[in-house]
Specification:
By secondary structure, the protein is α/β, with parallel strands linked by helices. 40% of the residues lie in helices and 16% in strands.
């Protein structure tokens, strides 16, 4: 027969086991709740969109701008190491706005495959490299696109004696394209849509792509129409080549910054808008001094004579005047790099101001 103490001991074991189990379950539940409260880091969260990019750039004393360096008219570096082009001037406009010095910029040459990684990792502050704005790049690639600086479209260049006139004539041909770009996918989509067989010949390097076309490795080459027009002038026999009339796709080219730093994105986008609005208000390098004395309230506010638009954004109040003084308005940038004052004489077309039948338009500066 068991003693009272033995019954008591057994009773304690029976009672405490469920209690222990309940306590353990409660502790686990608390841990799960706490774990759920921890933020789940997204890919590259530590490097995409440095929230202090403006401070980083100002402390460094210069802008680091990613460009191609191999596309005349947009970004090209000559044998003396001098950069020129529309994309280059966008970088210089940013440097002018921030430092009152368009030369306070370091250019970083990047190929099509490197460009997004360089921006995501924080290696560059801005990407200004004839880059098409797409939903995938804006979301999945975690980029923040700025205002469009060139409305383009994808085209095809062939030799005049090839008898290729339309896209259907490209059936069973070898077509050169640069990999890592939208042109490669756009071409595949169009040819599949029309049930046209072809052989893509792709290269990572843009120079290698055009060299392959010139050597006869492919019967046609596809790229942005602006790039084709510019590159045609560099061929050994430009008169024997033609950019065909049809357009495969829309290619809105725009600078980009890393996602996650709204202040930096605001600054870059309004600097780009400043060049467009300066043309709209007929403010140029030639008449800037006179315009700074204007009694027009809109112009005075725009140039920073009155109001606090620049200061409210965290930059110098005369940031627009700096851009115009050192780089010029959008028309001046376009004309010297691609238009009437360049060797390419590329018509502005859709890149005219809105009031001249184009698509260039800046929101109000107020």
């Amino acid at each position: 027969m068991k003693t009272p103490m033995q019954y008591l001991s057994r009773f304690r074991r029976i009672v405490t086991r469920p209690i222990t189990l309940l306590v353990c379950m409660a502790i686990c539940a608390c841990l799960l709740v706490l774990a759920a409260c921890e933020p789940i880091p997204e890919p590259n969260q530590s490097t995409i969109g440095n929230a202090n990019r403006l401070k980083t750039v100002l402390d460094r004393g210069k802008l680091v701008c990613g460009v191609s360096g191999e596309l005349p008219g947009f970004s090209f570096v000559n044998k003396e190491g001098k950069y020129s082009g529309l994309d280059v001037d966008i970088c210089r406009a940013i440097a002018a706005a921030l430092f009152d010095n368009p030369e306070a910029v370091q250019f970083r040459n990047l190929n099509a495959k490197e460009r997004f990684t360089a921006l995501q990792s924080g290696e560059i502050d801005v990407l200004s490299r004839n880059t098409t704005w797409t939903i995938g790049r804006d979301t999945a690639s975690r980029l923040a696109f700025m205002p469009i600086v060139f409305y383009d479209g994808q085209g095809v260049m062939v030799r005049k004696d090839s008898n290729i006139k339309t896209i259907t004539d490209l059936k069973d041909t070898d077509i050169c394209a640069q990999t890592g770009t939208t042109t490669e996918q756009n071409l595949a989509d169009q040819m599949r849509k029309l049930s046209l067989a072809y052989k893509p010949v792709v290269y990572e390097d843009v120079n290698a792509t055009f060299a392959a076309y010139q050597s006869g490795r492919c019967q046609a080459i596809t790229a942005d129409r602006s790039a084709l027009v510019v590159r045609q002038t560099r061929l050994g026999d430009p008169e024997n080549h033609v950019v065909l009339d049809f357009v495969i796709s829309k290619e809105p080219l725009a600078p980009a910054v890393g996602d996650g730093d709204s202040k930096w994105a605001d600054i870059i986008q309004w600097i780009v808008f400043a060049a467009i609005e300066a043309e709209d208000l007929d403010i140029s390098k030639a008449n800037l001094a006179e315009q700074l004395k204007s009694e027009n309230a809109e112009i005075r506010r725009f140039l920073g004579v009155d109001g606090s638009l620049g200061r409210d954004m965290g930059v110098a109040n005369d940031f627009v005047a700096r851009v115009v003084k050192h780089v010029g308005n959008y028309a001046e940038i376009y004309d010297r790099n691609l238009g009437k004052d360049s060797s390419f004489k590329l018509p502005r077309g859709q890149n005219q101001l809105w009031k001249n039948g184009g698509l260039m338009y800046a929101p109000p500066f107020r």
